[in-house]
Each structure stands twice: as C-alpha cells, then as structure tokens.
Design brief:
Elements (H helix, E strand, L loop, with lengths): L1 H14 L10 H5 L53 H33 L8 H29 L6 H4 L16 E3 L2 E7 L6 E5 L6 E6 L3 E6 L5 E6 L6 E5 L2 E14 L4 E18 L2 E6 L3 E7 L6 E8 L5 E7 L2 E6 L4 E5 L5 E5 L6 E7 L2 E6 L3 E7 L5 E8 L4 E8 L5 E7 L3 E6 L4 E7 L4 E6 L4 E6 L4 E6 L1
Antiparallel strand pairs: 1-24, 2-27, 3-4, 4-5, 5-6, 7-8, 8-9, 9-10, 10-11, 11-12, 13-14, 14-15, 15-16, 17-18, 18-19, 19-20, 21-22, 22-23, 23-24, 25-26, 26-27
Helix pairs in contact: 3-4
Length: 473
C-alpha cells in the first residue's frame, strides 16, 4: 500500500491531474469506478481543509471585527452620517499606518538576516540564499518607503491655482476648492484692508466694533454687521499686538503702548523703552507686556487717575517674548530663546524655566490644569505640574511644520476645541483631550493670530493682512 500511495502521488503530479475540489466520484459511490488515478474524490465528503490566510477583503469587514474596533467618524454632521472627506483621510491614515508597520516588520527581518550571515571568509549555499533574501527584503523596504512618500504627498490639499483664480480643472480638480473642510464650523466673512500681516485682534466690551492691527502700521475698526472698515488710524510704528480691558484698547508699538478709552474718546501713552511690544496680557489692575529684548514690563492702574503706572520690570529671557498667558495665579512667557518661564504674579519672580523646545516658542496656552506650548521646532507640548511642584512635559505631538499659535474655544455643548495654526498655511481644529482632528482651515499665508469672540465666533489673521470670520455651528 505504501508503494501504491507513492506511485499514485507521483502520477498526480506528473499528469497535473488534481482531484476536483468538493466533487465526489459518482461511479465510486456505485462501486463501479475503474480509474486509477481518478480525478474525483473517492469518499462521501471532501477531506477537511486547513484554513489558509485570505488576502482578499471580506464582503463586510465589520463582521470580522469586534464591535469596539469599528471605525466611527468623530466629526459626523448627524448620527449615521459620515463626512466623505474625513472618511477618505481616515482611510489614507490607515493605509499609512499599515505601510509603516510593514516597513518596521521588514527592517526587523533584515536585522535577523544580518545576524544569521556566516562568518567572514566562509561562503556556502546557505550564505548565498541568505544574501539573496536580504537583497529582496532591502528592495521591499525601499519600495514600501517610496509608497509611504506617495501616500503622504497625496493627502488632502487645497488647490493653489483655485486660490489665485487660475485653476482650469473645475470640479475635476483633484485638490480642494474651498477655504475649509470638516464639519461643525463655517466661514462668515473675509475682512480685507491690511496690507501686511495681522498681529492683533480685539473685541472691546465698550464697543460694537472689531479692532485689528498689523505690520502695516494701521489700526482698523470693523463694523460687525456689515463687515466693512468703519475707521482706521496710522500709528507711529508697526503694531506688535492688541489687547483690551473694559473701555480701554491697548496697542503695542515700538518702545510704547498706546491706549484709547473708547467711552470718552481720550488716549494716553505708556513708555516701553525695550523695543517692540510683542505680547500683552491684562490681570486685574495690571497690564503686562512682553518685549522684543526679552524684558517683561508691568504697569498697575492708578485708582485716582485711572492711568496705569510703572510697577515692575524684569528680564530673564534672552530673546523676544512672543506670547504671555495667565493661569493658576502664574504668568507664563514663551520666547525666541526656546524656553518658557513661569512667574509669580505678585512679585514677578521667575519660579521655573521650562526647556525642551529647540526653536522659538511662538505661543503658550493654559487649558484647565495644563499648559500647552507651540514652537517652530514642529512640536506641540503639553505640560503639567508634578507632585513635587515642578512642571514637566506629559504629552508631545510632532508635526511636519512649525506650530505658530494656539487658541482654545468651547462648542455649543461645552466641549473643548483646540485651534492650532501651522507653517503650511493651515489651522487645524482638534477635539480635546484626545486631539482628534475636527477640521482644517486653509489660508493664503501663515495664520499668525487667532482670537475668540462671543457665541462661537472666532477670527484668524494671516500674513497677507486678511482677516477671516468663523463660527462654530
């Protein structure tokens, strides 16, 4: 029987006559089959088959996955609705993740192959085979990395020709013909008037106007109902920043802070002999300014004259102070010297210097018990206070472009949303605390300023001088 089995097997392979799958010989069932070998099965049921891996996707992949693994669109407009652009991006990210895992796995194989190569000077058949496999794996890594590069370049992009009005592809263009994508927000208007970058936006409580300042040395007042420029003033230098408190509008200039009282139409100036006023923040009766030379100036309001008077001046930074924010009774400053400093608001003593960024810290933001920082080193860091009282990084996000400014807002259901502008001329909206991307805003140039308004309004100002008005839905 052993000889016959061997002979039968060799005959099958020589003639390339394999048993038909799942088909039983009807003559064998009747006891009358005289063929040896027979191409049909001589049994009442097909032999058990070992399950082979399938490389074809199942008809419904959801039936193959646990319910908790089913991808759900985090930005659906309504229950059961999936935003197509978001779905396509999610699929691209999934493919990118899969390819990344493939590269890592193949590189691990290469490492194993390298360790198994025979000692130098000894060449045998196994070495040749191993070198051949190594060459094949190297080629596979190169191909997969090239595919990753293509996947990355094919992500959703705005059509540059559409922005300039020159796109000839129309609806067939593979790039986006819109100023934003995503759901839960919309653009209301564009305010055009500044000739250079917008550096300040403010909504004083004592006025029904929106005020803006820019590097073109202009301060403009915008009518909130018509979107038209209602008035403009030429200043002595470029505007570094704007901030308001009650009826007062403060304008940061070169070596000075100009203040306008919008209720009684009076004005005054504060001396700031440290270069351009790059950032300002108000805390109770104090006005705090971050200067171009790294100094921090503090004025305290005189209860009788209602005019701020010099109260303190400190200098710990070695570069311009790009951003100031107050949280948990502390002042935080982000600087061009790549550091963040925490200050005691009462005596303006530096409590701690936060290091970790390798380029300019453009923006700092306090959100609940966390501090967030944006830097031109392409990272967004989240900081928290430890049990010992020091502040350390607890989370970091690495991006492909410099991170320019951060701003926080709540939607209609009081859920926190982070607005974050990047060096690729985009602003991205993230749901917190998991940083799920909610949408993208496109701009002609970098958005250097984001300001929150009332009732879901927010404003973006870019390097061309254009201001866009947005609203959460």
């Amino acid at each position: 029987m052993e000889v016959k089995t061997a002979r039968d097997a060799s005959v099958f392979h020589r003639l390339n006559v394999l048993p038909a799958k799942n088909q039983v010989c009807r003559f064998w069932l009747q006891g009358r089959c005289n063929r040896n070998p027979c191409k049909f099965i001589h049994r009442e049921s097909p032999p058990p088959q070992t399950e082979q891996p399938s490389f074809a996707p199942p008809h419904d992949i959801r039936q193959k996955q646990p319910r908790s693994m089913i991808w759900k669109n985090p930005v659906s407009k309504k229950k059961g609705h999936v935003d197509q652009s978001t779905l396509e991006k999610a699929l691209k990210n999934y493919r990118k993740s899969s390819l990344t895992e493939q590269v890592s796995h193949t590189q691990a194989q290469l490492k194993v192959e390298k360790n198994l190569v025979s000692k130098k000077g000894h060449v045998d058949q196994s070495t040749v085979l191993k070198n051949s496999r190594k060459s094949s794996l190297t080629e596979q890594v190169n191909q997969t990395q090239a595919q990753l590069k293509v996947e990355k370049s094919s992500q959703l992009l705005q059509c540059k020709h559409w922005v300039t009005g020159d796109c000839v592809h129309g609806d067939k263009c593979k790039h986006l013909h819109s100023w934003f994508c995503g759901s839960g927000f919309t653009m209301l208007a564009k305010l055009e008037g500044h000739k250079e970058a917008v550096t300040g936006i403010s909504l004083p409580s004592a006025s029904n106007k929106l005020f803006s300042g820019g590097k073109d040395r202009m301060v403009r007042a915008w009518d909130c109902s018509s979107g038209q420029c209602a008035a403009s003033v030429v200043t002595d230098s470029e505007v570094g920043c704007l901030v308001s408190e009650g009826p007062l509008l403060f304008v940061g200039l070169q070596n000075a802070v100009k203040a306008w009282n919008l209720e009684n139409n009076t004005e005054f100036s504060l001396n700031a002999p440290c270069g351009l006023v790059c950032s300002m923040v108000v805390n109770d009766d104090k006005l705090i300014a971050g200067m171009e030379d790294g100094s921090i100036l503090v004025w305290k309001q005189n209860s009788e004259t209602k005019i701020p008077e010099p109260a303190a001046m400190v200098r710990e930074h070695n570069g311009a102070i790009c951003s100031l924010v107050i949280g948990a009774n502390r002042l935080y400053s982000g600087s061009k010297d790549c550091t963040i400093k925490a200050w005691d608001l009462q005596n303006m003593q530096c409590l701690q210097t936060l290091t970790g960024h390798t380029n300019t810290v453009k923006s700092v933001l306090c959100w609940e018990s966390y501090l967030m920082s944006a830097s031109l080193d392409n990272t967004l860091k989240v900081w928290a206070t430890t049990e010992s009282g020091t502040i350390e990084v607890v989370h970091e996000i690495k991006e492909d472009h410099g991170v320019i400014t951060l701003c926080g807002i709540h939607d209609a259901e009081a859920r926190p949303i982070l607005l974050c502008s990047f060096g690729d001329n985009t602003v991205r909206l993230y749901d917190l605390p998991n940083f799920t991307e909610k949408g993208i805003i496109f701009s002609k140039r970098e958005v250097e300023l984001i300001k929150i308004g009332i009732e879901g309004l927010f404003f973006t100002g870019d390097a061309t001088g254009e201001i866009s008005v947005w609203k959460l839905l």
